[in-house]
Amino acid sequence: MRGSFACAGRAPPLPPALTGAPPIPFRRLLRAVGYGLFALFVFFICFTFLRPSPYDFLAVPTMALWVALGIRLHRAAIVFVLLLILYHLGVVTALLPFLDEPEPTLWTLQSIYLMVTCVFFLMFFSEDAERRFDLGAKAYVASCLFAACAGILSYFQPTGILFTMDGRAAGVFEDPNVLGSFLTLGALFLLRGLLTGQARHPVLSGLGLLVIVAGIFLSFSRGSWGALVLSSLLMTALTLRSSLPRVRRRIALLGMTVLFVAASVLAGLLSVDSVADTFVDRFTITKDYDEGVTGRFGNQMRSIPLLVERPEGFGPLRFRLRFGIEPHNSYIGGFANGGWIGGLAFLGMVLTTAFVGLRLCLVPSPYRDRAQVVVPALLMFFLQAFQIDIDHWRHVYVMMGMVWGLECARTRWAARAAAGTVAAPEALRPPAPAWALEAAPRRP
């Protein structure tokens, strides 16, 4: 039919230059700008040593542009968003008696701001999820490499800009524990690419992984050390479960190689006297400030009966006024800062996110491979929340947005697959049973 129109003498369309139409549609240009802003937005997560940071300056234009471009909230994430709002509603309610105090008010506003960014990340990753997730992963790894290099520099060559604390590397973060935890996801991204052979530049990825691992080690954060080891093991186990036999052999071989190289690098670091001394001091399950009635864990235990008697909680940042230090436990902090409403909502956020994340990792879908990287890291943060405050860590909200964005994309894909409008990729189809392969006729 098209050929008959051409033979009939129908003139071809004029090029855009002659018709006056722009060569690139305006909306496409806006999307390109939006992707650039988003990549910078994620990269600047680590810039906490500036107040306000470039992350904060990019937040409003990035979110506003993508809202204008039409990102939406999918119904699969409504439960999580309601729990997120309920948690902050509890915090705001607990703040009301202390509105005249600037620090609790500022802390609450910052918490609401992080909530908004989390919802944005959720909506952003829920559409065109594979492309957007990969973009976010690249920007996050770049941010980790910058933060790790800054941390290593702050340890061996302290400067007036970069932070150290008690002989531990902090770099662009004020707290070494935050540096170590932030780098964990970047290490998993690079490790996964090496194990599965998906890294485009394996040598560069391997060098980047060593830099990030060195940054985590020099933070001397016991929680981050444990999180890196456990999340790496969990990610590897999940990858092995969903991989073909030849990929499993590759993972086993490269896994041993990565362990050997990492152990060699750590042995080299431990050959430095100052590093070895700090390592020996930190390589304990508990420290003096953790133990005793007035230690970290003692304060947590003493606070529980008081919080049971106070449905309204203590109010934002008022735990430290009663006990002299922060709770160093995000679950107790949820009840202390937001009362029963805030504490139960925070617990609900963690449980629903863990359930959805594990389902993403186990149920075949186009998004399983990506979930198998971010979910193990996030689960380790949820465990770390028992001994540190994670409720104001930017990267935790990014990761929760990633998980729920992938869940929205998976739900949408599953609905289309059930309706028959999309076919399951070959990699997602279960292998044929042995009897079927034996019965199938062989080609000559």
Describe this structure in words.
This protein has 444 residues and is mostly helical. It has one domain. Helix content is 70%, strand content 2%. Helix 7 (129-156) packs across helix 8. It is globular, with a radius of gyration of 25 Å. Residues 1-11, 16-21 and 429-444 have low confidence and may be disordered.
C-alpha end-to-end distance: 42 Å
Largest sheet composition: 2 strands, antiparallel
Which strands sit side by side, in order, in the main sheet?
1-2
**Spans where pLDDT lies below 50 across 5 or more residues:** 1-11, 16-21, 429-444
Structural class: mainly alpha
Overall mean pLDDT stands at 84
Beta percentage is under 5%
Radius of gyration: 25 Å
Determine the number of helices (DSSP H or I, runs of at least 4 residues).
18
User: How many structural domains in the coordinates?
Assistant: 1
Task: Assign a percent range to the helix content.
Answer: 55-70%
* General form: globular
- Overall number of strands: 2
Give me the strand/helix succession.
Answer: HHHHHHHEEHHHHHHHHHHH
Short description:
The protein has 444 residues and is an all-alpha fold.
